[in-house]
Specification:
Two copies of one chain form a homodimer. Chain A has seven helices and eleven strands. With 231 residues, the first copy, chain A, is of the alpha/beta class. In chain A, helix 2 runs parallel beside helix 3 and helix 5 crosses helix 7. The two termini of chain A are 28 Å apart. In chain A, 35% of the residues are buried. Chain A binds a DNA duplex (30 and 30 nucleotides) through helix 5 and helix 7.
Chain lengths: 231, 231
DNA sequence: TATAAACCTGAATATACCCTGAGAAATGGC
DNA sequence: GCCATTTCTCAGGGTATATTCAGGTTTATA
């Protein structure tokens, strides 16, 4: 689903900006608002394909936003965002239908992946599928399974997200800062060294099964997932 | 029965919205109203395939709604909803023919399962639908019987619903939040730990009879019902 | 070649996550 | 009302994971 239209609803401007930049870069058309009232108004007029909706808004809960929309016969799938330990917003029954749910802090690429998953499920057109295959590696995003030349390897959640990010940008060097911004949660305040560690973990699992060195280091620049001619 | 048309009748807007979203995603065309009078009017005009009907309505009882419809020669099967303490026995007298009833609070996937069951009984087509078979496990949804490689196992109601949900989404990781929202009643207020407990119960009953580990843990992500090639 | 910067990787640590048994509380059948 | 089943919570133990760090290795460049 290219050029899907996303409405972001969050009262924290930081989060809105982060999401807006990330989703625009990922090819979405983005609207963003800070209150539930605005959300209902914009959703009614613009009819976006999906909502990214904070559960805790200043004027009303994200839950009541979806209720209002549904009472207006407007059915838009929702990716809910909520603070991790905020027990107050733990409303069950939130993810009915094709909806999904993530806790803050999130990583921007995880948000993008979830949006794609929701659109796959709700817009039954198999235009985009859950398989991401680049060169010798195939990722089944529904099952969270990774295959190197047909052999499955077990990755931790962070290893998985890092590999998915690199494979989404093949033959393009990604700096460690870019990787941190996309793969790690937005409040992570560690050092770049952790990227080196995780690249090392990935190589240890991938290289024994691959013909080529798929994750290349560009010294002083970053890392790159490479593809090769004739496989 | 794809694209069956459902009329929801409930005075609580929350419940209507919950049902509406869930049933639409499950592939039904949905109408919804809040009173018995509207229900009769819409049912007469739209002739839905099934009614989901709250027993306690503000203007009249669900019973009188069905009576009115039958006096108008309109026969539509009904799934009654009643509050737990309203005396469920009163409802049993209401169910004639293919009707069914359930008590609030319900789980959304259970409602969908009951609707499918009623439609199977009343529209005699595709009776095979009641068998859900994925890999080594077969569920007879009419009889509530579960077989692992041909051997029947006894499951509690919650174990059954959890297994059915996982099997309805094979090879797709489902998060604990999603599982809670679909399998547990909508007012459930507990923690994710209960999902772990029930997965443990299920495994204890399934694993001794199955060749593969059918319910897989994706650490940090959720659980998945897996199928295997050449089984 | 010498030097510094960048990178790799093993080890150490704290923590998050998951499994399971046990028991309390709720439910349902008789 | 009583007993059996089921639901739900909780805590202990075990393991995977995230993160940091230090020592070794490679690379660029003077």
């Amino acid at each position: 689903m290219k050029n899907a239209r996303v409405l972001i609803v969050d009262d924290e401007k930081n989060i809105r900006d982060l999401l807006e930049a990330g989703l625009k870069f990922a090819g979405f058309s983005v609207y963003s608002v800070g209150t539930g009232t605005e959300a209902v108004a914009v959703a009614e007029k613009a009819k976006p394909d999906i909502l990214v909706l904070d559960v805790m808004l200043p004027d009303q809960s994200g839950f009541s936003v979806t209720k209002k929309l549904r009472s207006m016969e407007i059915y838009i799938p929702v990716l809910f965002l909520s603070a991790r330990d905020d027990g107050a917003d733990k409303v069950t029954g939130l993810t009915v239908g094709g909806d999904d749910y993530m806790t803050k802090p999130f990583s921007i690429d995880e948000v993008i992946a979830r949006i794609h998953a929701i659109l796959r499920r709700t817009q039954k057109q198999e235009a985009e599928d859950s398989i991401l295959e680049v060169g010798e590696i195939k990722i089944n995003q529904d099952a969270h399974e990774v295959y190197v030349n047909g052999t499955e390897i077990e990755l931790s959640p962070t290893e998985y997200k890092l590999l998915r990010f690199l494979m989404s940008n093949p033959n393009r060097v990604m700096s460690k800062d870019q990787i941190l911004d996309h793969v790690w949660e937005y409040d992570f305040n560690g050092e770049q060294g952790i990227v080196e560690s995780y690249v090392s973990y990935l190589r240890k699992k991938i290289d024994p099964l691959s013909k080529n060195s798929l994750i290349q280091t560009k010294r002083g620049v970053g890392y790159m997932f490479r593809t090769f001619k004739e496989d």
